[in-house]
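Sequence only, no structure available. Ideas?
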Amino acid sequence: MSRVHAHGAGSTSSHRWLAARDHARASDARMEIAIVAFDGFTDVDVFLPWDLLNRVDAPGWRVRIVADATTVTSIAGLPIATHGTLDDASRADAVVIASGPGLRAKLLEPAWLDALALDPSRQRIGSMCSGALVLAAKGLLRGARATTYPTQRERLAAMDVDVVEEPFVQQGHVATAAGCLAALDLVGWIIEELAGAEQREIVLRSVQPVGRGLGFDARPLPSRQYAVAR
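Reply:
I predicted one. Tokens follow.
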């Protein structure tokens, strides 16, 4: 526990005021990250980004799973309650579009696409696997390099996209990832952009296999809530 060595009542009051001010600033500086899900989403494409993003220790950092329904069910049959609507994704600082067989139906719903108002001038926008089709449908990948799941490459290429066989492609504020574990690259990019390189390293270290990649050390996980719950 930190100690404040105050000299007199005035100094104590000053410290209290400063603490209250700093708390208010932290509360106001909210950073919203939205993961867009739907019925028939691939479990790992939602839950891996969800887990990684929730390890970030930054003022006002909040991660939400959003959809056009209050409950969505994964391809493995797991129903989950969502935290918000597609409008929340439109207001978020970063957006991750999940993947899964259920996305095919959503791509045929103009209302669903219209509700997902994305703006790379003020947002970091990324997709997992076939989620790149949503970005292409929104015109965010026109003429750009991008990646997607192998079975969707031809379809994405037909949408005026330069499709490459890479796990992660980032151009400006838009990024695409292919392969479930490429979420490490996508989420790492979002974390570094919004919370800094140190947070990115801490989060990725916490999930790397021991003795491989970035390695692993004994530092506590950045999120006290996660460390206690685990």
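Residues 19 and 121 are 34 Å apart (CA to CA).
Hope that gets you unstuck.
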